[in-house]
């Protein structure tokens, strides 16, 4: 069996870390997290942590928004076409 076909038959190849870890005794998601530990965090917690480390979360969010806007600009014509045809 070639490698591509073997991967398609592996039911676990596409599992995310969250899907694998959610059953772990030490895994905590964002809702149960009280002490900023665990494997999944809210954006709010990440920004709070960055601020504690001396970084400017407002500047970081501005830069993230800038990347998102620039990404959307690159596909704007295709988005507009799809919007008009639907």
What does the model show?
With about 90 residues, this protein is mostly helical. It has 2 domains: about 1-40, no CATH class; about 55-85. The protein is built from 5 helices and no strands. It has helices at about 5-10, 15-20, 45-50, 55-75, 75-85. It is flat.
Total DSSP helices? 5
State the low-pLDDT regions, or none.
none
Reported for the largest beta sheet, the result is:
none
What is the overall pLDDT average? Answer: 78
Report the order of strands and helices.
HHHHH
State the helicity in percent bands: 55-70%
Which percent band covers the strand fraction? under 5%
Q: How many separate domains? A: 2
Shape: flat
């Amino acid at each position: 069996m070639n490698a591509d076909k073997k991967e398609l038959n592996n039911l676990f190849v596409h599992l995310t870390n969250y899907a694998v870890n959610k059953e772990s005794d030490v895994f905590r998601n964002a809702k149960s997290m009280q002490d900023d530990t665990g494997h999944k965090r809210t954006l709010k917690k990440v920004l709070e942590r960055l601020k504690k480390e001396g970084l400017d979360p407002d500047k970081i969010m501005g830069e993230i928004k800038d990347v998102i806007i620039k990404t959307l600009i690159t596909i704007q014509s295709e988005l507009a076409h799809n919007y008009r045809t639907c």
